[in-house]
Write a structure and sequence with these properties.
Layout lengths: L1 H19 L8 H105 L3 H8 L4 H152 L32 E4 L2 E2 L8 E2 L2 E4 L5 E3 L4 E9 L3 E10 L2 E13 L6 E2 L4 E5 L9 E8 L5 E2 L8
Antiparallel strand pairs: 1-4, 2-3, 4-11, 5-10, 6-7, 6-9, 7-8, 8-10, 8-11, 11-12
Protein name: Septal ring factor EnvC, activator of murein hydrolases AmiA and AmiB
InterPro entries: Cell_wall_metabolism_enzyme, Dup_hybrid_motif, M23ase_b-sheet_dom, PcsB_CC
GO molecular function: metalloendopeptidase activity
């Protein structure tokens, strides 16, 4: 549509240039018709452009709503990602704490391992000593080697103490080894659990990041689409603005042409009145001359004139033509008047008066003027438009639904002159004349009954 509209506008401009290049002398109703056709083309183009603009605007609005929904999802994902990030940070801090605990435990384990090693060395020494002395026999040797009873008692006490110490060392050795193994298992399990939780959190965050990336991609696509649509809409709006400016220019040209035709109609009316006045003057002079001749003959005649020999002749107007500025445009009955009406198949605001009669009933010009348009219209059917000059003011009459057109654009017509025949062309329910009166040029309809004797 963008590629086709500019050539059309260029064509209209070229047509306007050719049309305006024609000489301005004489009546050029065809030029007015061309201007109005060009304006109609521009208006159609404006409607197409406006529809395109509205479609783009609707699509842009829909995309914008879709984009807002995606951005809302992205904001929600941002919140979830931040939550996961905080959980990961908290877990990393816990892991660091656990690692610090592990380091401290390692130092404790190292000390415990040293104690266990020392005990192992002591126990090995004791075992070697027992092996050299034959095991428990060494305790007997110790007891029998006493030199007195009191020394024997002391040695018995010392032996018991050593044996209890050996049992204590062995028990502590077992307990320390069990504690060491348990601490190692707890720390390693805790660390493994934390590392596993960290992996899960990182996987969840990675999935959220992926979703966010996908949504960002969709947003970028929508933004690119929005930019394309907005660019196309701006182009359509520019074309619409150009077409609107051209339409305004055409309207000015049409008004100027209508005014020019109105001037011609006014001059034609002035010329008609001048000729009528001249004719009346010549008729009066002829009547005066005839009366003078009659008087002269009467004075010289030997026979007096008889009153019964004088016959008065009158020239009455045709029955269908009224006196004054306007006359009824057709015989028949009025079926619809000017103004609002309740019809399902026709305009609710009637801009004229309908006069019904048989098909073929003569249609006459309601007043003196110049035919500004004569042609066909989807609603009016065959129609005629006449521009009149009434006391220096422009008026326009319209005659629609004709079965036949008996005049042409640019023709000068007189009040009561037949211009066509009644019909039912266009949007019509039966044979009738649709008659309109406009103040000035076409576009300012008034009630015809206020001006024309109907």
């Amino acid at each position: 549509m963008l590629k086709q509209s500019k050539p059309l506008i260029a064509t209209v401009v070229a047509t306007m240039a050719l049309s305006f290049g024609v000489g301005t002398t004489g009546v050029s109703a065809s030029k007015l018709d061309d201007l109005q056709n060009q304006q109609q083309q521009i208006e159609q183009k404006k409607n197409e452009l406006n529809r395109g603009i509205q479609e783009k605007s609707s699509t842009i609005k829909a995309n914008s709503e879709k984009k807002d929904k995606l951005l809302a999802q992205i904001r929600d994902l941002h919140g979830k990602i931040e939550t996961k990030q905080n959980e990961i940070a908290k877990l990393e801090q816990e892991i660091q704490t656990t690692k610090a605990e592990i380091e401290a435990l390692r130092a404790s384990i190292k000390e415990l391992e040293q104690k266990i090693a020392d005990r192992d060395a002591l126990l090995r020494d004791r075992v070697r000593a027992m092996q050299v002395t034959g095991g428990s026999a060494s305790y007997v040797d110790v007891l029998l080697g006493a030199n007195s009873f009191s020394e024997f008692i002391d040695r018995v006490s010392a032996v018991n103490t050593l044996r209890e110490a050996d049992r204590q060392i062995i028990a502590e050795q077992k307990a320390d080894k069990a504690t060491l193994e348990d601490q190692k298992n707890q720390v390693e399990s805790k660390l493994a659990t934390q590392e596993e939780n960290k992996k899960k959190l990182e996987a969840a965050k990675a999935e959220l990041d992926r979703q966010k990336k996908d949504l960002n991609g969709l947003v970028e696509q929508l933004e690119a689409e929005q930019q394309r649509l907005e660019k196309e809409q701006a182009s359509l709006e520019t074309e619409y603005s150009e077409a609107h400016e051209m339409s305004d220019e055409l309207k000015q040209q049409i008004v100027a042409e209508q005014e020019r035709i109105a001037v011609i109609a006014r001059k034609a009316e002035e010329e008609r009145k001048r000729k009528e006045a001249e004719a009346r003057k010549q008729a009066a002079a002829a009547a005066a001359s005839e009366q003078a001749e009659s008087n002269r003959k009467a004075a010289t005649s030997s026979k007096p004139a008889s009153a019964g020999n004088t016959v008065a002749h009158t020239s009455a107007p045709a029955p269908a033509v009224s006196g004054g500025t306007w006359t009824r445009p057709a015989a028949g009955r009025i079926t619809s008047t000017f103004g609002p009406r309740d019809l399902s198949w026709a305009s609710s605001n009637h801009q004229g008066v309908d006069i019904a009669n048989a098909t073929g009933t003569p249609i006459v010009a309601a007043g003196n003027g110049i035919v500004s348009r004569a042609g066909s219209h989807p609603t009016l059917g065959n129609y005629i438009m006449i521009t009149h000059s009434v006391n220096g003011k422009t008026m326009t009459t319209v005659y629609g639904h004709l079965s036949a057109i008996g005049t042409s654009q640019g023709a000068q017509v007189s009040k009561g002159q037949q211009i066509g025949r009644m019909g039912s062309t266009g949007r019509s329910s039966g044979p009738h004349l649709h008659f309109e009166v406009h103040i000035g040029n076409f576009g300012n309809p008034v009630n015809p009954m206020l001006y024309v004797p109907l």
